[in-house]
Specification:
Length: about 280
């Protein structure tokens, strides 16, 4: 079977289009004035094209991770994978991960209010997908449940973020909502793993979790006692890179998952026709 490169083409187009649009938006000031959004992530603003170069350009990690996801999706031949029942999901995952890069860079490059909103929205989209996909598989549901759960999770995050309350460690209610979605998704994934009917390469799941936990520790440490505002080596930039690794490993875990017995695509079809 020849590799299917449609996911790679979509992810590549998303990467080129979103990155190019961001560059134009920065150059023309479409994202608004610098209000110091994201200034609490240690790096001192420069009088450059981008305000925080390390925290901005480290987001290339998300773009690379998304493109790698798309490339792997095109070569994957495992028809028993959970993803094989929903052929467009790998493309959606790849594009979501790609968009994390320009969206986060929008805030760090401009320190604008709109840039900050784009950064948070991209975080909600990825966390909501992880939660919705775990929910769908846990409930043995279909695409309808995935989409409904995904939209409800994103909307909930946006509503919670309107409460401008400072929270210890995570700082904002929006960050807390993002973290809660990821924790809930992790709990659901553990319960799915424990099912006898499901097998997967768990090392990918453990690696993904380890990467994001280490990233979170660095994220906190470099806002306080490890902060060096004028260094081009920034802890928040390392957070971006480790999160990109985590996203890629999470996808590889999804792609490795198999359901015992018949291919999951057949199971999904039977569920829809009520057999």
């Amino acid at each position: 079977m020849r590799p299917d490169r449609r996911a790679f083409i979509f992810a590549g187009a998303t990467a080129i289009g979103s990155t190019g649009l961001l560059a134009v938006a920065i150059g023309r000031g479409w994202l608004g004035a610098d209000i110091g959004r994201g200034a609490n992530f240690c790096e001192a603003p420069r009088d450059w094209f981008v305000r925080q170069p390390a925290n901005t350009f480290s987001n290339i990690g998300f773009v690379a991770a998304g493109v790698l996801i798309a490339w792997h999706a095109g070569t994957r031949q495992n028809v028993r994978s959970s993803l094989s029942a929903h052929r467009q999901l790998p493309t959606a995952i790849a594009c979501l991960v790609v968009l994390l890069g320009p969206a986060s860079a929008a805030m760090h490059a401009t320190q604008s209010a709109l840039g900050g909103e784009l950064d948070m929205l991209s975080m909600y989209l990825v966390a909501a997908f992880a939660f919705a996909y775990a929910t769908m598989r846990w409930r043995r549901g279909g695409t309808g449940l995935l989409v409904t759960t995904f939209l409800a999770a994103v909307a909930s995050c946006e509503l919670v973020s309107l409460a401008h309350v400072t929270i210890p460690v995570v700082m904002t209610t929006g960050n807390a909502a993002f973290g809660l979605l990821l924790v809930t998704a992790t709990v659901l994934e553990v319960r799915i793993i424990r099912r006898a009917e499901v097998t997967a390469q768990r090392a990918y799941a453990y690696g993904s979790l380890a990467a994001i936990v280490i990233a979170f520790v660095i994220w906190n440490a470099t806002q306080t006692w490890l902060c060096d505002p004028h260094s081009l080596v920034q802890g928040h930039a390392i957070w971006h890179l480790l999160d990109a690794v985590s996203a890629y490993l999470l996808y590889r875990y999804y792609a490795s998952e198999e359901v015992a017995g018949q291919p999951i695509r057949d199971r999904a079809i039977e569920a829809r026709v009520g057999r």
